[in-house]
Amino acid sequence: MPMTSEKDYTTASTAFLQLANLFQRLGLESSPFKDWAPSTGMPFLGLVYDTLKMSIEVPQDKLDCINLLVHVWLNTSSATKTELQSLIGKLAFVSTCISPGRIFMQRMLNELRLLTHEQQRFHPSREMRADLEWWSLFLASYNGVSLIRSEPQITNPLRFCTDASLHGVGGFYDGRFFHATYPQFITKQSLHINALEILAVTVSVKLWASVLPRQRILVLTDNKSTELALNSGKSRVPFTQACLRELWLNAARNDSDCLSRWDTREFVSLYHTGRFLRQVPQDRI
Fold it and tell me: 171 and 132 in one domain?
């Protein structure tokens, strides 16, 4: 919370000195390097938090180090499990500030799960290199600063309802709806229902892209796995990972934000209140 007056600063500074005196009386020691006097900008776990700018900042030296590491990996033909763990750890650190960053780490984690011992060598897959290319392009233009969201709860969102079965997919939004059977390239993959549910969300977001610019979207789904994947940006399923990347790309293009809720009752309620339903032409799906 930002300091709003000189009194706030004086109170905080006094408390800080009192704590230092208490440590001295008790014979306790603190690290001078980590001690930080009251300020609106303060480092915490390697990041700098600023309550006036409402921002989180990755220090430039760490950003440069990670950028260099990504370029090294793009030119690496083979590496060990330990080296991959180090790369993932550094990217996970930056992902604290970059919400889609976790999505573009999933295929690295896929590679990691295949390695059985620390010094085992492997050749980075084409898919993993594609994610590294994303990081390379992103870090080249990222200044290390991300805004802290002042409204953690989405207000007045667009509400999508989506659903899927083993035979087809459908969605509902503001009196409009669509339904379709799966094309052959989907059916022959014999996908799990969880993957088909997030496919329903992906189709809906792409279909109604014209209403998305600068909007916040609340997706209502009756599938818990879809809710967790959308909100966390993580999944071990390659098809779900592909859907997450597609959803993030659409969100970036339209400057929109997406949150999922698992709420079967509201799903049914919104469907039945749509008195004048307008079906989307099949050739648009």
Answer: no
